[in-house]
Amino acid sequence: MNYSFKKYQPLSLRWWHWLNALAILGLLGTVLLRKTFLSWRTNAQFIEQKVTEGGGAVTPEVAKSIAQGLRDVMWDWHYYIGFGLTALLVIRVLVGLFAVKKCPATHAVESVMGLSKVPAEKKIGAIHYTLVHIGYALFYLITLYMVLSGLALYFKEAIGFSKDFNHLLKEIHEVLMWFFVVFVVGHIAGVVIAEGRGDKGLISDMFNGGEDRK
Ligand code: HEM
């Protein structure tokens, strides 16, 4: 078992990595906008206040519907990018089958299994590598849930799950958003720290592939 982070990154995986990063950041961006600048609660109040100041009148229901209408134009991007993420997940399976030839879950399990054979002086590094790869396996598993639950919610009328089940899917979908927040922050901090600690070129390898082309 090779516990080094420095390994050749195939071109297809590099493209996938950066497009996937864009999709995840884009999806988190839509959530951020929905919960802040485009929150219908804040904006409905604002609309009501401005219309009243202008001498007009608007019912709370109409103000809410205007605020939601404005938010929905932005929220459509959650779906466009969500479908993009769905396509990227399918592409990742193909990249795994034909280029990387390794399954992230099996890789994480193999890393755990190999730990006992690692000499004492390399143990800390190997445990670190294993934890990172368990994190990656978790990332794929949770992305799969986000995609499947997102599609189920998008096509809820056609699929016909019960209202309660759709509600549960949505609650879990919403809570798991926090995994991506933690992952993005942890991942960026992790590679930056690793660059400074001896894994030089880790980030540029994700652009140029790295030197170890086998
Ligand atoms: C990293 C990936 C994703 C994150 C972080 C994420 C996050 C969220 C969050 C936080 C909500 C709840 C918004 C609210 O009600 O306040 C939500 C709702 C939703 N998401 Fe995602 N999502 C992701 C992927 C997807 C994908 C792949 C799809 C599929 C197209 C999707 C479709 C939906 C749908 C249909 C809703 C329900 C909207 C509603 O009921 O108004 N999401 N998402």
Helix content: over 70%
For the largest beta-sheet, the strand count, sense and barrel status come to:
none
Which molecules are bound in this entry? protoporphyrin IX containing FE
The outline comes out as elongated
- Mean pLDDT score, rounded? 96
Q: Give Rg in angstroms.
A: 22 Å
Count of helical segments? 8
Q: Which architecture does the CATH hierarchy give at level 2?
A: Up-down Bundle
Number of strands: 0
Topology:
Blueprint: H1 11-35, H2 40-53, H3 60-100, H4 104-114, H5 123-154, H6 156-159, H7 163-196, H8 202-208
The structure holds protoporphyrin IX containing FE.
Task: Please explain how this structure is put together.
The protein is mainly α and 214 residues long. The chain has a single domain, classed as Up-down Bundle (Fumarate Reductase Cytochrome B subunit). The chain is 79% helix and 0% strand. The protein is built from 8 helices and no strands. It has helices spanning 11-35, 40-53, 60-100, 104-114, 123-154, 156-159, 163-196, 202-208. Helix 2 runs antiparallel to helix 3 and helix 5 (123-154) runs antiparallel to helix 7. The chain is elongated. It binds protoporphyrin IX containing FE. The site of protoporphyrin IX containing FE has 22 residues, from helix 1, helix 3, helix 5 and helix 7.
